[in-house]
What we know:
This protein is of the alpha/beta class. Helices cover 44% and strands 12% of the residues.
Amino acid sequence: MAEAWLEPDRDPAPRVIVHTGEGRAFQTGADLSEMAGDGVGMRRYQHDLLDLDLHFTSWHQKVAKPVIAAVNGICAGGGLHFVADADIVIAASDATFFDPHLSVGQVTAIEMIGLAKKMPFEAVMRMALCGSHERLTARRAYELGMVSQVVDPPERLREEAQELAEKIARDSPAAMAATKKALWAALELGLTDACRVGAQHLVGLWGHADQTEGPRAFVEKRPPH
C-alpha cells in the first residue's frame, strides 16, 4: 500500500486518485482467522503503532493529490482508516460501516480518532462502543458527514467517482496540493495557528504560472491550460 499510494502521487499524469474495493467489500480490516491461530495476533504491529510509523493510507504517505474513497459494500475495522484519511468519501447506497474491534477484544483508536475530526463525536463513540452489533447505512453515514454523496444504484459508484474526479482535475494541481496541506494542517491546530499556516500556503503560491493563466483564461472565457 505504501508504494501503491506513492506511485500515482509521483506520476505527473494523474490529477486525482480514486480508491475503491473489488467485490463485496471496500475493506474488512485485519484477518481475524490469522490473528486467532498464529499466536502473535496484533503484537506484530506493536512497534509501528507506538512509533506511529504507519504507511497504508494516503494521509500516512503525505499524498499531495486529492484522494477520493469510493466505498463499495462493507467497510469495517481497519478499513475505516481509509475513510478517515481520504479527502472526499462517497459511498454506494448499499455500503455499510462498522467497527468490530471491541467485539473481538481489541481497542479501537486511530481510525476512530481520525473520524472524530470529521463527524460528530457521539456518533463516532457509538460506532466504537457498539462494535459489530450495529452498522451504519450509507444514508446515515451521509447524515453524519462521514460521506459527502450516496450513489444509487450502487453499480454507478465507479462512474460517479470518475465524474467527481474529472471535476476536481480541472483545477490547478499546484493550488490543490497547497490547499490540501493547509486544510489537513488545520485539523491539528487551533484556529489562529491554522490560519497562519494557511496564509503561508496561500502566499507561497503567489507568482506560480497557474496564477497568471487562471485569471487570463477567465477573462478570455476559455478553459485554463
